[in-house]
């Protein structure tokens, strides 16, 4: 039988640590979710887009990214059935009731057919 006692004695024993630190939590000096307009203006110009020149435009990239796509209920102008459609749909969406084209894909957002009304979900 092989003894591992000499091998283990070469390594010093580490003191037992608690999983939770006893130090108080540090509070950030800057609110990361709601940055000030001055902090937004100091960002890189390519990230901000045209928001540096016009304060009414939203920034192209914020500190906390959010999706710009959404789902919507589209009402067919012919049979008034409601179909759920993704805003950036990449295929043609057809009404299940009357086979009318509800929206067509473009490079970004899907283009609704004239006469179709929608509601954002």
UniProtKB/TrEMBL annotation:
Keywords associated with the record: Metal-binding, Ribonucleoprotein, Ribosomal protein, Zinc, Zinc-finger
Q: Is Transmembrane one of the keywords UniProt gives this record?
A: no
SUPFAM superfamilies given in the database record: Zn-binding ribosomal proteins
GO annotation terms (biological process): translation
Which molecular function term from Gene Ontology is one that the record holds? Answer: structural constituent of ribosome
Q: Which GO terms describe its cellular component?
A: ribonucleoprotein complex; ribosome
**InterPro entries cross-referenced by the UniProt entry:** Ribosomal_eS27, Ribosomal_eS27_Zn-bd_dom_sf, Ribosomal_zn-bd
Name its co-factor(s).
Zn(2+)
Signal peptide per UniProt: none
Q: Which HAMAP family match?
A: Ribosomal_eS27
What family is reported? Belongs to the eukaryotic ribosomal protein eS27 family.
Protein name (database record) = 40S ribosomal protein S27
The species this protein was found in = Penicillium brasilianum
